[in-house]
Amino acid sequence: MTSRWPRSLTSALAPRGDALLLLLAPLFVLSLVTHELSRHSALAAHFEGFDSDDLDEAEDLSSSDEVPLAASPPPPPATSLSRSASPESHHGPPSAPKPPPSSDLWDEDEFEGIPVAVQSADPAAAPADQTRAPSLPLPSPAPPSVRSYTTEIVCISFLICFLINYFTGKRQNEEIALAWAAKFATKDSIFDKNFSLLGTGDGKDTPLLLKEGQDVFKFYASGRRYCQSMLATMEMRSRHDLISRALDLVFRKRDVITFEVVMNEDAMDHVVLALAKRKMAKAMHKEERDLERFATLGVMPLSGRKWVADEVLVVAESKEVAGDLITEVALDQVFGDKAFEKFGKWFISLHFSDQHPGSHKKRLIFKFALPDANNMADMSRLVALVPYYIDLIGRYKLSSHAQSKTEAARAKATKEEYKEQQNLRQEVMQKKKAEKKKSLEEAEMKLTAQAIRKKEEKDRARQLKKSMPRVKMLRSH
């Protein structure tokens, strides 16, 4: 600084100290003003976007909450100039600014770079502020609502409904089965009069029904001429299953009882006959092998004879068989027009054949629908068909002409079955050969060149041995 001033001026002012102070004072004031302006411009850059309106709202909020704020800082003390030996002492760093007042609305994370206010060290001020500050009670936790337990309530409700339905459905199926047994299998009933042994055992206390599941019940009877045994299987709706019961509301299903009578080998002639409602009769003709091979769909009787109702379709091997087995008694009891209107709703199908698949080929199969437990008497006429057709088919004999035709048809069917079995055997053998050949080829691919050469030599020697003529040696005695 001394280099900037002319030597004449410094020498002129040097002897007088008051004049030197008067000259340096304006320079110090100018320096302080410039420094203060630069500091305010830096603070304004940090608070960019912060309006005075926001400050007013913050002040209103602080006044409404009655939260005491720290007193505004006192004005900075007047700057006093001190004598300094160095003329450049006014360019030193400024003193640190006072910390801003502390407030509840001050957010330290929002305003970065601003020094944190230091709390007052006055011990008397702190208790006063704490006593004046209102104590806000902590909010109590809300009680759990019902919606938070929705899943548990639904699962428990479903489990309770499932258990209730299981026991009620089980009891309903048992009531229907017991009602049927009480009507048709007890003392002086129709099966008691026609069979000598009822139930699964020889004792008097043996149960009549055999329960194989919650919806399957079986009744066994034997000891009658023309037949070996009779097995009645009741297949109920799955009332004990809640999901199946719900599906039954959409897809209606009925309780079904099936009678399967195994006839004696010498008590049944060549007979193939089936009766069912039209839609089911067509399905049976396509699905049942004996009906497809031997029987004709929609057999009509001889002219002038009363026949089955229009809803029923007859599938028989010949008109003779159909006319002889669908008797006037059967028409009056069940299959006639008037009788079928009343009892036809419980009839499903009947199927008589001496060509059934399985070990017992000669069987009679009756399939009926079961009414509820209170209306079991509605199917009395249908149940009466079982012993009636056992006796009828046991005594029935075909005419010689029909006998020859049925025997020729069965001989042809036997040959076809034999050919089918032969074809199946050949297919199985060819399949095995192909698999063996494939496995050998895979093994050859894994062999080395030397092993392949040895194998080719063995094959060549085997071929030469086969091509050589065979010589027979005779022994002389």
Number of contiguous helices: 15
Task: Report how far the terminal alpha carbons are from each other.
Answer: 157 Å
Structural class: alpha+beta
Shape: flat
- Give the topology string: H per helix, E per strand: HHHHHHEEEEHEEHHEEHHHEEHHH
- Report the uncertain regions: 1-17, 43-52, 61-74, 76-92, 117-131
- The beta-strand count equals 10
Query: Strand fraction band?
Result: 5-15%
**Which percent bin holds the helix content?**
40-55%
In short:
This protein is of the alpha+beta class and 477 residues long. It contains 15 helices and ten strands.
What does this entry look like structurally?
The protein has 477 residues and is of the alpha+beta class. Among the domains are: 150-403, no CATH class; 406-457. The protein has 15 helices and ten strands. It has helices at residues 7-13, 17-46, 52-64, 125-132, 150-184, 190-194, 242-250, 278-287, 289-294, 319-325, 328-335, 337-343, 380-395, 400-445, 449-467, and strands spanning 197-198, 209-211, 216-224, 227-235, 256-263, 272-277, 296-297, 312-316, 347-353, 363-369. Strand 2 and strand 3 form a beta hairpin. It is flat. The termini are far apart.
Task: Show the helix and strand layout.
Elements: H1 7-13, H2 17-46, H3 52-64, H4 125-132, H5 150-184, H6 190-194, E1 197-198, E2 209-211, E3 216-224, E4 227-235, H7 242-250, E5 256-263, E6 272-277, H8 278-287, H9 289-294, E7 296-297, E8 312-316, H10 319-325, H11 328-335, H12 337-343, E9 347-353, E10 363-369, H13 380-395, H14 400-445, H15 449-467
Antiparallel strand pairs: 1-3, 2-3, 3-4, 4-5, 5-10, 6-8, 6-9, 7-8, 9-10
